[in-house]
Each structure stands twice: as C-alpha cells, then as structure tokens.
Fold this protein.
Amino acid sequence: MIQIKTLATGSTGNCYLIDDGETRLLIELGIQFKRIQRALNYETTKVAACLISHSHQDHCKGVQGALDASMDVYMSKSTESEIGIQHNRIRRYENKQQFKVGTFTILPFDVQHDVENHGFLIQSENGSKLLFATDTYYVKYRFKGLTHLMIECNYSRKILDENTDSGRVHEFLANRIIGSHFSLENLLEFFKANDLSRVQEIHLLHLSDTNSNEEEFKRAVQAATGKLVYVP
C-alpha cells in the first residue's frame, strides 16, 4: 500500500507526498518551500528525497529551499540546466535508468511536453507500483501491474472548444494546451491500453481552472475504470 497526500496541484503549483510505510518521497516542489514545511509539520527530515519532472516553476519553485534544507532532489541534466541551480544535493537521473531511494525503485521515462519532461514508475518493496505522469499530452508506454495512478487530467476537448469559441481562451493558448497537457479524452484511451486489473486508486492531477469539470471528470473515469478515483 502507498499513501498519497497532495500538498498542491494545478497550474499554480504541484507537490505530492507518497509513503509506503518505510520511505517517504516528495514528487514535485512547485510551491514555496515554507508552505511544504508547514504541510509536513516541519518533518522534512523524514522525507528521503524529492523527484522533479521538469523545469517549469509550478513544478520546481521550492527546489532551492529543499536543497538548502539538505534534501536530495532528483532531476534530469536538462532540468538542472534550465532551472540554473547548482548544489551538491542535486542528484541526476537518466531516462529509463532506474535508481533506488529507500524501499522505492524509481524508473524515469520520457513524456511529451514543451520542455524535457519525465514521468516516474515507482515500485515499493511492499509490492505496490505507482505511475506518476503529468504535463504530457500522451504517454507512449504501456504498463502492467500498477496499483496506484497519479496522472494528469487537465482539460476536456469539449470544454476547451467551448471556451475557445466564446473567446474565453485564446486560440494560441488552446493550441499550446492541446500540445502539452493530457485531456480527459486521451486519458480514457490510455486507460483502455493499459492493464488496470490491480489498480486500487486513481488520482487525477493538474486539472485546469478554466477547461475542466471536477465532478464530470471523476464520473467519467470511475465509469471507464470501475476504480476509486480522487480529485485532490
């Protein structure tokens, strides 16, 4: 079993805590580090490491604070270069090269965004297997034996088209969203292509404030998968 706690999600910042009872990991540091400290009751020393998917501020705003607090922060070479921070607590990962933190084995894999970005396949020694993927319009890989999904469901094409037609969303921004974020429609196709037989929980992440409908998305994913769905 893996416990999942969302500290923040969405375009204003992303930060998630996972805990298998032995090891705690933070995924993304997209909010001020002081806010992360408060959310964890100032027990950041109990966190084994942090994983960063890509260089956008809503995923790495708190990196400097975490490093200054002597936390190990894992990121790709490209992300390190793009955020422009050098620190001896930065740990690099390579695409499709697994590494171990405590009781977790982590496999970064490339996903499709407008900068280099990675998802993570995270397996615990207790048998749980978590997939994390956000800020991608598509995931080209297939997965088996998943028990937990933390995955982006940013917008629906129907709502985005309505907002574009009404002028609420500019066409340029709409095209950027389509080319860099996961839609409800693509996510439902992703579910069809993957083995969900062991999945216990699905956490829908990074919903757009403008182009999503929380209740509609939750109902659609529950109906398609029959799984327990959370929209933090």
Remarks:
- Helices lie at 33-39, 57-60, 63-68, 77-83, 157-166, 171-178, 184-193, 214-225.
- The first strand starts at residue 3 and ends at 8.
- The chain has eight helices and 13 strands.
- The CA atoms of residues 10 and 206 lie 4 Å apart.
